[in-house]
Amino acid sequence: MNRLYNALQLKRLYQLKHLGFRYVPMIQKRTGASTVLPDDLQSLRNMVSDCMLCGLGKSRTKPVFGEGDPHASLMFVGEGPGAQEDTTGRPFVGRAGELLTKMIENGLEIPRSSVYIANIVKCRPPNNRVPTPEEAYTCLPYLMKQIEIVAPKVIVALGATAYHYLTGDKSGISKVRGEVIDRGSYVLVPTYHPSYLLRNPSAKKEVYQDLLKIKRLLCENC
Ligand code: SF4
Hints:
The chain has 10 helices and 6 strands; from the N terminus they run αααββααβαβααββαα. The chain is of the alpha/beta class. It has one domain (2-220): Uracil-DNA glycosylase-like domain (Uracil-DNA Glycosylase, subunit E). Strands 1-3-2-4-6-5 form a 6-stranded mixed sheet, with helices on both faces. Helix 1 (2-18) crosses helix 6. The longest helix is centred in the middle third of the chain and has 18 residues, at 133-150. The model is unreliable at 24-33 (pLDDT under 50). The structure holds iron/sulfur cluster. Iron/sulfur cluster binds next to helix 3 and helix 6.
């Protein structure tokens, strides 16, 4: 019952945030439990490591909180952990992760450690399926808090799922890829997910164009 209450509160917080409301420090008590998310990454990570708010918590090996520079100007957001991420607890460490690292280090010419990398859901969906809306909306407040704490200038949405849950727009990724979308405190640039590039290498040239655009945006914002 308490778990359901917490899930509903987190979902409600996200909906309010999406409508333009900001989080404010407050304590909401019910049977002694607080629904406020902490303002530092380590405490938030600890909260995620114990989280069982959606069904993905039951099947995960390790939650994948995210990693990188806590003051990064650039953040990448993917869909969710895969098999290797689930085993290691780190984001983008499989083949798609190797490609993302190349995109960052060769395309943007910055070290991977200088960016922040996270996902829409922190726990692996079984068989790498797309997270359900319930799973995504339940987990999303954690990502929103990470964005608030890290405060990047540019966020790159990797693939349709990340773009959809960061904007509420269900447009296909091929339609919106490469756009620069003003989100107030940051700009969002959607591009293809590295897993898609592994299956469709010919799309790498479009991503290269997106990386050039991201590089320019970072220079403008530095
Ligand atoms: S996916 Fe997110 S909401 Fe679901 S159990 Fe994992 S951390 Fe919690």
